[in-house]
Amino acid sequence: MLSEIPIWRIRYLPMDLDDVCGRENIKERLKEYLKRRNFPHLLLVGAEGIGKTTIARLFSREFLRGYYDTNFKLVYANVPLTSEEMKQARSNAHISTSRLGSLAGKTITTPAFIQVKIKPFVQLKVLGDVPFKILIVKNFDYLGSNQQAFRRLMEIYGTNCRMILITTKISKIIDPIMSRCQIFLVSPVNYSSFESLILDIAQKESLKIKREVIESLYKTSGGKLSRAIDLLQLCSISGDVIDLEKLYENSINSQNDIIRSLLLMCFKGDFLKARELSRKIQTNYKFNSQEMFKIMLTELAKIPLSKYSRSKLISLIAESDFRAIDGRDIDIQVSNLLAKICYFSEFI
Amino acid sequence: MATTTNSNITWVEKYRPNSIKEMALPTAKVSGHKVDLTEELHRFVVDFFKEKRKINETNKKIRAYNRTHEEKDHKEELKLASDKAAALLEGPPGVGKTTIAYALANDLNMEVVETNASDTRTKNELEAKLSETTKSRGIMDFIVESKKKMILIDEIDGIYGVTDRGAVPTILKLIEDTQFPIIMCSNEYKQNLQSLYKKVRKFEIYPLSNEEVSKIARKIIKKEKISNLSEKDLSLIVEKNHGDLRGVINDLQGISQGSLDRNAKELILNLNRDSTEEIFALIKDLFQKTNTLNEARSLTDKSDVDYNFLYKWVNENLPTFIRINKEIAQALENLSLADEIFGRIRKNQYWSLLPYFYDLFAGGVVLSRKRRRTDESFRRILFPRFTSSGFFSLSVNEKLLVDKIQKKYKISDIEVVQDFVPFLKKLCNSSRKQLKDIGEWFELDAKEKKFLK
Fold first, then answer.
1. Same domain, yes or no: A50 and A137
2. Among A314, A340, B101, B162, whose Cα sits 20 to 30 Å from the Cα of B120?
3. How many domains does chain A have?
4. What is the ipTM of this complex?
5. Neighbouring C-alpha atoms within 13 Å toward the C-beta of B273
């Protein structure tokens, strides 16, 4: 059954907490919670794609066991509400005057996101033989000022529902939330566990892979397991032996590399082509421009440049990003950045 | 062509073709690919009725079933996919969007129910006008086989503000319930209609070529026996209208009727018709004729083009006119500062900053050029079509794919699009077997598989 899944990263998803690669200290603490059948609100912090959600989900499943489906919910804070959900939020905004009590006829000012996605779940009673429900909120930092609304929610409904908040940027989480949570720092997989996992997969898929290749796989994937496994699968298509050449060939063309190619296109000095490419990237990958600026910044570090030009380029990106906050047409800001890089490239 | 002798009707109406065969067909694209507009629309209408009949029959059975069963056993009634129920024609004015709808209806012997920007389109008004057509047939229809209808929502970008409150949700509902195909026309992309765009099949219509326009213009000149127009004047009219056939015909009528002296004719030749037309001229003047800040100022002062999107036009067309990197960079620097200032004006109501905004986006462009090249050649002016969306949104087809993937692999929409789908694409491109396996596992149909290629 397992071998039928054509995509390795899904095939090798861990099935329970023990299966999770590395991170022994975290697993130990979570298992302690499982034993005691109780835990406080949690805040998981760590870089993108290293498995925070997988850990949280597996933990919840083991905690809730048979009642997992009804008592578990995962919410993405960065996915905007659909039009139907917005409609629902608006229709809920006025409490009917026919209702008695102090709330009658008043307008609810709760943010639509909390109104639609969080409240209905946390307010409902627990079903089945578990102490409380579990709500996972992913990318919690995207909520911004809406985080304030969570302060009371976490206290009022805390006994009914525990929350696991997941974020990549702890600096964006407001203090009151942090004080209400047990903070877990999720680190990337260390090399030895990474190696044993890859060797395990290689054995199951009958691949031949050398130690040094695993090392460079670890580096290129930046500790992101799903990306490493993706790469492995791409390499495996053209044969059982995985070498550095293949790895290099397949590792280009991820989203970061496309942004890098955009930068390189700018260095050639053709503004019109660069703008076309950037628009294509934005429509294909659904990047919002802010993310694009950030990726540009990381990619800049990988391009060989003089100290002066690097710092100059960083300041250009920073300025565009800064202007995009207040600006109304982000395309103008992106165009501006591209044009400036095109012009600047004449001096490199 | 219609040959009414009534001289009161405008030529545009008089020479409006009744059949698609008589039309000068504009080029159309669907998500970047060129398509045959007539054929596509024809198929759209025919398919609509075919599928709607099927769905109606099934629904009848479901309703009968629901009547005899308890509420909890009720089955959902089927609905037609929204992009099969409505089509949107988006393109510059005067290329024949409305005409093609009418001509098509005429060819297929259908009746057109039209609503346009001249109607107030609040929720109630729209419902009153259109809802009858969405319900199944009237009593009379069972006796006489009535004409099929087509709903034409013209000038949809004119839906605006308080006067048309609630129009978009009503149209969305209409798309769901409609018994007749809906065709919508629009000039430009509007942010507030985004929810609508996501649901419909969108055809981008491009302006007619100058040759085609002249051909039709000559026909009309011959028929109307216009004598006071030289070939040179005609080409001037055609050129200034940029593929806007309606504009050309209106100009012709203006010139021919009455005894016009030379000056009046000149006036018509220089006339600005609507805002798009005016923007074209303005952008051209700004890049090709203006040299000093004062000239730029007087240009923006004189025009009553909405500055809300004028600077977007400047952004879009900047690289067509300015070719030197240094100048592009400087002009865009000014433009981006203008954009930032404008953002602050709108956010905090600092209207006192508005002069800087004007000077920066118009004057900034002019002043960033050291020396204007004496190149007055015609450059094609582009519509600012691309809007970089500040937030994440998916088209209908993309959403289908994402939903299928999420059924098997629980990650968020954003992760699917940015991380997982690019990987799948790469995997599928490497071998056909992979594509087949992945397609089977995610239970994708052919259309969704195409996305992975």
1. yes
2. B101
3. 3
4. 0.76
5. 21
3-state secondary structure of A187: coil
Residue A58 counted as domain residue = yes
What are the phi and psi torsion angles at A323 (to 5°)?
Answer: -70, -30
Rounded to the nearest 5°, which phi and psi values hold at A221? -85, -10
Domain with A137, as residue range(s), is: 23-185
**Contacts of residue A83 in chain B, CB cutoff 8 Å?**
172, 195
The beta strands (E) that lie in B66-200 are given as 86-90, 110-115, 148-153, 182-186
Q: Of A45, A21, A40, A19, which Cα lies nearest the Cα of A29? A: A40
B385 and A CB contact within 8 Å: no
Decide: A182 and A39 in contact? Cβ < 8 Å: yes
Run of H or E including B220? helix B210-224
Residues of B whose CB is below 8 A from A78: 392, 412, 414
Residues 11..40 of B with a Cβ closer than 8 Å to A: which?
none
CA B410 to chain centre: 36
For residue B34, the one-letter residue type is K
Check whether residue A29 and residue A111 sit in a common domain: yes
Of B169, B332, B413, the CB nearest to A336: B332
Domain membership flag for residue A11 = no
Pick the last residue of a domain from A251, A278, A296: A251
- Within 8 A of B337 by CB-CB distance, chain A residues are 323
Select the residue of A237, A328, A344 nearest B343 (Cβ to Cβ). A328
Same-domain pairing of A115 and A237: no
Best A4, A7, A266 member to test B by mutation, with max B CBs in 10 Å, is: A7
Nearest to A269 among B325, B417, B430 (CB): B325
pLDDT tens per residue across all 348 residues of chain A: 445 788 888 888 888 888 888 888 888 889 988 998 888 999 999 888 788 888 999 999 999 988 888 889 888 887 777 777 777 777 766 555 544 455 555 555 567 788 888 888 888 888 888 888 999 998 888 887 778 878 888 888 888 899 999 998 888 888 888 888 888 888 888 888 888 888 888 888 888 888 888 888 888 887 788 888 888 888 888 777 888 887 777 776 567 778 888 888 888 888 888 988 888 888 777 777 777 888 888 888 888 888 898 999 999 999 998 998 888 888 888 889 999 999 988 887
Task: Write out chain A residues lying below 8 Å of B329, CB-based.
Answer: 336, 339-340, 342-344
B11-205 placed in CATH 3.90.1150.10: no
Distance between CA atoms of B125 and B44, rounded to whole angstroms? Answer: 27
Confidence of residue B1 (pLDDT cuts 50, 70, 90): very low
For chain B, positions 186-215, list CB contacts with chain A under 8 A. 195
Query: Is there a single domain that holds both residue A264 and residue A330?
Result: yes
Question: Which residue ranges make up each domain of chain B?
Answer: 11-205, 210-270, 275-367, 396-451
Q: Which of A73, A166, A332 is the best mutation test for B, with the most CBs of B within 10 A?
A: A332
Query: Which candidate, A291, A224, A215, A226, places its Cα nearest to that of A255?
Result: A291
Instruction: For chain A, positions 129-148, list CB contacts with chain B under 8 A.
Output: 138
Tokens of A104: 């009658």
Distance from CA of B86 to the nearest CA of A (A): 18
A64 and A213 inside one domain: no
CA distance B11 to chain A (A): 40
Q: How far is B434 from chain A (nearest CA, A)?
A: 7
What is the per-residue pLDDT across B79-112, written as a single tens digit (0 to 9) for each?
777 778 888 888 887 788 888 888 888 888 888 8
Alpha carbons A268 and A273: distance in angstroms, whole number:
10
Does CATH number 3.30.420 belong to domain B210-270?
no
User: Is A343's CB within 8 Å of B325's CB?
Assistant: yes
Greater confidence (A277 vs B143) lies with A277
Structural domain ending residue among the three candidates A169, A185, A201: A185
Identify whether residues A172 and A35 lie together within a single domain: yes
Q: Do domains B11-205 and B210-270 have the same CATH topology?
A: no
Query: Can you tell me which residue has the tokens 């397991």?
Result: A225
